[in-house]
Amino acid sequence: TEILALPGVAEARKNATSWLKKERLSSWGWRDYTPRGVVALYLASDATFNGTVLEEELMAKETEIKIAVALLR
Q: Could you tell me the residue range of the domain that residue 54 belongs to?
């Protein structure tokens, strides 16, 4: 898209995803904010969640569990 072609956008996106990954816990999540982190990484095209990277699958599974628990409430 056109916004990705703007100067500085690629670097800002790289910095943001690096920061987000750095803030991740050892359990590969962000506590209550894991679904937001997963969506942010996906939208930034920094994670594909296609089954090839174990860490991504752990984050996606945690998100699925959190959503299921929230729906059961």
A: 2-72
| Cβ count within 10 A of residue 53 | 13
Q: What is the pTM of this model?
A: 0.79
Under a CB-based contact definition with an 8 Å cutoff, are residues 65 and 59 in contact? no
Tokens, residue 68: 């299921």
**What's the average model confidence in pLDDT over 46-53?**
91
Torsions phi, psi for 17 (to 5 deg): -70, -35
Q: Would you say 17 and 41 are in contact if contact means Cβ atoms under 8 Å apart?
A: yes
Domain count, the chain: 1
